[in-house]
Automatic annotation (TrEMBL):
Record keywords: Hydrolase, Membrane, Protease, Serine protease, Transmembrane, Transmembrane helix
Protein's GO biological process: proteolysis; signal transduction
Protein name per its UniProtKB record: Carboxyl-terminal processing protease
Domain named Tail specific protease: residues: 175-361
UniProt source species: Flavobacterium aquicola
Length: 525
C-alpha cells in the first residue's frame, strides 16, 4: 500500500507539546550551578554570532537555531517541541476556534479553485456562492492556471472583518461567469462536529479537538439534546489528539457531582494542583459513554479518565494513546513558539496514563504501530497492562496506569470490518475530493432528491465503489478494497451526503453501522 501524504488526515492534537527558551534569564542569582548554566547559554549565543558574522559562506542562522532548539527539546520528552512561525500561526488560529474570511470549503481541482461547499450562513453562502463554483479571480489576483498552494490561497481570501473582496466565479452548472462581492466575517472553526440523537433517548456528540470554544460548543449541544428528551449521552473523542485541558475539565464537570476530583497535576517545583467538579453539572444523572481509540490523547484522556475513575460512565473502544504530560506555550518575537512539558497529570484514582518514552521519540511514536502488530487492536487480551500500576475506583473497579486509558468495554478494529490503514484512508481528504469530482460531472442528478430518496439511490449501486477504486489507482494508491467493500461504501456514500445535505447527514450514514455505536445501543437494551 502506498499513500500520497497530501491525503493523510491531519491530527491537530498530535503536534501539541511545549518548549524551552534559550537565552539570558532575569534576576541575578549567585549560585555556582546557575552561573555554569548561564555560561553555557552565553556560549550558544556567541557561537551563533560567530557563524553569522565570520563564517566563510552564507548561512541561515535561523535554521541553525531551530536545529539547536529541536535537538535540545528532543532530549527532554516527545511532547516538548519547537513550532516555527507559520505553523504556530496556523495552530493558534485552529485552537482559537475562528478566523476572518469568506467561509468556503475548497481545494485546487486541476488548475482552478473549486468550492466544495460554502459554510452554512457564512459570507459566501449569503452572497450566493454555490458548491461546484470555480473562483477565477480574487479582486484582480488570478487564481486559476497557477496551482497555488493552500497557504497562499488562504492568505488571499482572508482579511479584516467587514472588508470586501470581489470574486470572479465560473458556475459550471449554468456555463457562465459572474462577479460576486463578499464582505468578510468571522468564520467559526467547529471543534464539536455534530450533536444528534441516535434514538429517542440517546444523544451523540462528536468532539474533534479541545480548543478555546469547545466547552461553549459542547454545552450548547448538550442543552439542545436534553430539550429533545435525551437521557443518555455518547461522547465521541476517537482520533481526538487533545488540546486545552481546561476545556476537557469543564466538560467533565457537567457530568460529575460537586467536589468530585476530575484530575490533578504535579510539577517539579510547584505543589500538587487538584481540579474538582463544581455544583453546576447539568447532566449528573443518566448514562454516559465515552468512545476512545488509539489516537485519543491528552485532553481526551483527561475526560475519559475522570468519567471512568469516578464510576460515572462507561468507556468504550480501544486503549487510548497514553499522553499524561502537561505543556505550556512560550512565544518568541518572530512568531515561533516552544511548548515545554511543565507537569504530569493524574486521573482521580492517582494513576498516570503516560506511556514510557525512555527509548527515544521515534520508538515512542512507533508504539501505536506495535499495538497493531501485537494484535491489541483486535483482542482485548493482547492489551499490555502492568499489575504494579493497578488502581481501584471507589466502587472497586480495576483500572490501570502506565500507558493510556483501557476501556471498560473493548471494541476491536476487526468489528469495524477494516484494517487500520483503510480506516485512515477513508477519513482522509481523498474521499472528499473524489466525491466532489463525481458530483461535478452531474450535480443535477442529485439536486431534487430528498435525503431518504438519496439513501435508496446511493446504497443500491456499486458504481461509486468501483469508481473510487480506480480513483485511488490514478492517484498512486495501490490498494485492493474488495475485502472492505461495505466499509468503503459507507464512508464514500456518507461523504456524498455531507456535500449534498450537510455534516449531520454524514454522521447519520457513518454511525448507522459503527461498531462502537452498536455496542453502546445494545448495552442499553
Amino acid at each position: 500500500m502506498k499513500f500520497d501524504n497530501k491525503y493523510l488526515p491531519i491530527l491537530v492534537g498530535g503536534i501539541f507539546a511545549l518548549g524551552i527558551f534559550i537565552g539570558s534569564l532575569s534576576g541575578s542569582p549567585s549560585s555556582k550551578s546557575f552561573s555554569s548554566k548561564k555560561n553555557t547559554k552565553e556560549k550558544l549565543n556567541k557561537l551563533i554570532d560567530f557563524i553569522d558574522n565570520e563564517y566563510v559562506d552564507d548561512v541561515n542562522t535561523d535554521s541553525i537555531v531551530s536545529l539547536t532548539v529541536d535537538n535540545i527539546l528532543a532530549k527532554l520528552d516527545p511532547h516538548s517541541v519547537y513550532i516555527p512561525p507559520q505553523q504556530q500561526a496556523e495552530i493558534a488560529e485552529t485552537m482559537k476556534g475562528d478566523f476572518v474570511g469568506i467561509g468556503i470549503n475548497f481545494y485546487m481541482f486541476k488548475d482552478s479553485v473549486a468550492v466544495i461547499a460554502p459554510v452554512k450562513n457564512g459570507p459566501s453562502a449569503r452572497a450566493g456562492i454555490l458548491a461546484g463554483d470555480r473562483i477565477l479571480f480574487a479582486d484582480k489576483t488570478k487564481l486559476f492556471g497557477r496551482k497555488l498552494p493552500n497557504d497562499s490561497l488562504f492568505a488571499t481570501l482572508k482579511g479584516e472583518v467587514g472588508s470586501q473582496i470581489q470574486l470572479t466565479v465560473y458556475r459550471k452548472s449554468e456555463h457562465k461567469k459572474m462577479k460576486i462581492t463578499i464582505k468578510r466575517d468571522v468564520i467559526p472553526l467547529k471543534s464539536v462536529d455534530v450533536a444528534m440523537r441516535l434514538n429517542a433517548t440517546t444523544g451523540y456528540i462528536k468532539i474533534n479537538r479541545f480548543a478555546e470554544t469547545t466547552y461553549a460548543e459542547f454545552i450548547k449541544a448538550l442543552a439542545s439534546l436534553k430539550k429533545q428528551g435525551v437521557k443518555s449521552i455518547v461522547i465521541d473523542v476517537r482520533d481526538n489528539g487533545g488540546g486545552y485541558m481546561e476545556e476537557a475539565i469543564a466538560i467533565a464537570d457537567e457530568f460529575l457531582k460537586d467536589k468530585a476530583l476530575i484530575v490533578f497535576t504535579k510539577s517539579a517545583k510547584e505543589a500538587t494542583e487538584k481540579m474538582y467538579a463544581t455544583e453546576k453539572g447539568s447532566f449528573e444523572t443518566g448514562n454516559v459513554f465515552v468512545l476512545i481509540n488509539e489516537n485519543s490523547a491528552s485532553a481526551s484522556e483527561i475526560l475519559a479518565g475522570a468519567i471512568q475513575d469516578n464510576d460515572r460512565g462507561t468507556i468504550v473502544g480501544r486503549r487510548s494513546f497514553g499522553k499524561g504530560l502537561v505543556q505550556r506555550e512560550m512565544d518568541f518575537n518572530d512568531g515561533s513558539a516552544v511548548r515545554l512539558t511543565i507537569a504530569r497529570y493524574y486521573t482521580p484514582t492517582g494513576r498516570s496514563i503516560q506511556k514510557p518514552y525512555v527509548k527515544g521519540n521515534e520508538e515512542y511514536f512507533k508504539e501505536s504501530e506495535s499495538r497493531f502488530l501485537h494484535g491489541e487492536l483486535y483482542k482485548k487480551d493482547s492489551i499490555k497492562v502492568v499489575d504494579s500500576l493497578k488502581f481501584k475506583t471507589k466502587k472497586g473497579k480495576i483500572v490501570y496506569g502506565g500507558g493510556g486509558i483501557v476501556p471498560d468495554v473493548f471494541v476491536p478494529l476487526e468489528a469495524e470490518h477494516g484494517t487500520e490503514n483503510v480506516s485512515y484512508l477513508l477519513q482522509s481528504g481523498i474521499v472528499g475530493h473524489f466525491v466532489f469530482e463525481q458530483l461535478d460531472k452531474n450535480r443535477n442528478a442529485f439536486a431534487k432528491l430528498t435525503f431518504e430518496e438519496f439513501q435508496v439511490k446511493i446504497n443500491s449501486t456499486d458504481l461509486y465503489f468501483g469508481a473510487f477504486q480506480k480513483y485511488l489507482a490514478q492517484n498512486g494508491l495501490e490498494i485492493d478494497l474488495r475485502n472492505y467493500k461495505s466499509l468503503v461504501k459507507r464512508y464514500v456514500n456518507a461523504e456524498f451526503a455531507r456535500q449534498l445535505y450537510g455534516d449531520i447527514f454524514y454522521y447519520k450514514m457513518v454511525l448507522k453501522e459503527d461498531a462502537m455505536i452498536k455496542t453502546v445501543l445494545n448495552s442499553k437494551q
